[in-house]
């Protein structure tokens, strides 16, 4: 079990009932068949390996799973209820989360128990997500396809869309969404675009991010493409319009005069209430989207602003006009975050990726800031590290971020692909990083 889980949840690292249930199987052949199936071997392949029929392998597998469940029930009578509780209200759980209910050092026994229980590692577009488990594979497939339909969007929006659909953001999600048969790909700056129209989608994201009409030459420069080709692509795409007489390119949904164009949805939301006064939420949402094309989710996030509140009549208005700031409801909890019962210790499981190595701020789930009591935006909290540096948590209107962790990751000897936990101690304003790869660490090992 990962050190960060033991530290936060208080699990006993000596609780090895899953390993014992595995060891108590009738024979090595039962273990070999179950492990082979977990690793993707077919019945025919295992039959050839052992010199027996595929039916014999199938029967051995069935008998092994039955005995494994019986052993587990005898050694840990409540484990089934714990697993069901973890899946309650969630279509996906990670192996790290399921270690809470089934502690197992190397994961082999846990994976075999989960399979016998009826859980699966979901597969979509021909890519199996080994880090995830589900009891409803069809729902995971639907959620992944719904997520793909939210493109084009920024990396930040994709992470939040994933959380809203019950999917854990991170490297596993990126791998399945960009697999060979999947419909999406990434832009140079990390945005998400549809593979079949990647150039047009990338241009859309650039213009949307800029917020003002652009020259085709400027869009092309960012994309590293020929201006003439980009202009022709935008001309064929109904999402773009060309302004006259200057010939700049804008989004067709933009409706504000260029001289009064705000920079983001939050500014539009404030402008709407400034001009129209108190509004029901439905009217507020409709007006913001009409002026600035964003998702309904993004409009809802504007309500976390410390400038927007609610009147006694239930209408939205500005706080400076007497509205009461809106108490943020608990966001969907990200599978990558755990907290102890007291709420004074929270940890975020992360992977060293290119954003970490380049020193970028790291997008995290809004559940983290909610748990830390940061219910309105903008808010900032600072947590001191033993190295003398800080982990800064920032709560924005539509997102939350951790400050760059590049130096701390380098000090711990981590490289691309390493997993680590950021532990935040809310009562003492202290923080710590823990390298959690274990024996499968992708970072090069120093010679003894």
From TrEMBL:
Name used for this protein in its record: RNA polymerase sigma-70 region 4 domain-containing protein
InterPro entries per record: RNA_pol_sigma70_r4, RNA_pol_sigma_r3/r4-like, WH-like_DNA-bd_sf
Native source organism of the sequence: Catenulispora subtropica
Domain RNA polymerase sigma-70 region: 27-60
TM segment ranges: none
Gene3D superfamilies linked: Winged helix-like DNA-binding domain superfamily/Winged helix DNA-binding domain
């Amino acid at each position: 079990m990962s050190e960060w889980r033991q530290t936060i949840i208080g699990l006993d690292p000596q609780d090895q009932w899953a390993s014992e249930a595995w060891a108590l199987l009738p024979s090595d052949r039962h273990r070999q068949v179950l492990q082979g199936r977990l690793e993707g071997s077919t019945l025919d392949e295992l039959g050839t390996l052992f010199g027996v029929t595929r039916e014999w392998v199938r029967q051995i597998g069935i008998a092994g799973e039955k005995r494994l469940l019986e052993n587990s029930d005898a050694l840990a009578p409540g484990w089934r209820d714990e697993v069901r509780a973890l899946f309650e209200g969630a279509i996906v759980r990670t192996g790290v989360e399921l270690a809470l209910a089934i502690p197992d050092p190397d994961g082999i026994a846990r994976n075999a128990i989960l399979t016998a229980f009826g859980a699966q590692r979901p597969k979509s577009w021909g890519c199996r997500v080994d880090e995830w488990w589900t009891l409803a594979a069809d729902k995971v497939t639907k959620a992944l396809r719904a997520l793909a339909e939210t493109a084009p969007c920024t990396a930040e929006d994709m992470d939040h869309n994933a959380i809203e659909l019950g999917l854990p953001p991170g490297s596993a999600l990126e791998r399945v969404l960009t697999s060979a048969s999947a419909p999406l790909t990434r832009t140079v700056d990390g945005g998400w675009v549809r593979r079949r129209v990647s150039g047009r989608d990338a241009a859309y994201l650039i213009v949307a991010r800029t917020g003002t009409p652009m020259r085709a030459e400027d869009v092309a420069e960012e994309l590293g493409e020929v201006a003439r080709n980009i202009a022709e692509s935008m001309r064929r795409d109904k999402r773009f319009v060309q302004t006259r007489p200057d010939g700049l390119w804008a989004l067709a949904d933009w409706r504000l005069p260029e001289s009064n164009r705000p920079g983001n949805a939050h500014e539009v939301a404030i402008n709407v209430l400034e001009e129209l006064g108190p509004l029901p939420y439905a009217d507020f949402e409709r007006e913001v989207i009409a002026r600035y094309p964003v998702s309904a989710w993004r409009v809802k996030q504007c309500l976390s602003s410390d400038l927007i509140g609610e009147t006694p009549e239930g209408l939205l208005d500005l706080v400076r006009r007497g509205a009461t700031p809106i108490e943020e409801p608990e966001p969907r909890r990200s599978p990558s975050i755990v907290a102890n019962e007291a709420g004074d210790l929270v940890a975020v499981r992360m992977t060293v990726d290119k954003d970490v190595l380049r020193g970028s701020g790291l997008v995290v789930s809004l559940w983290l800031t909610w748990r830390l009591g940061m219910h309105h935006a903008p808010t900032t909290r600072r947590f001191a590290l033993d190295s003398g540096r800080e982990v800064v948590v920032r709560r924005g209107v539509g997102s939350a971020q951790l400050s760059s962790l590049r130096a701390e990751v380098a000090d711990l000897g981590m490289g691309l692909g390493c997993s680590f936990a950021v532990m935040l101690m809310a009562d003492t304003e202290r923080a710590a990083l823990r390298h959690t790869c274990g024996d499968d660490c992708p970072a090069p090992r120093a010679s003894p």
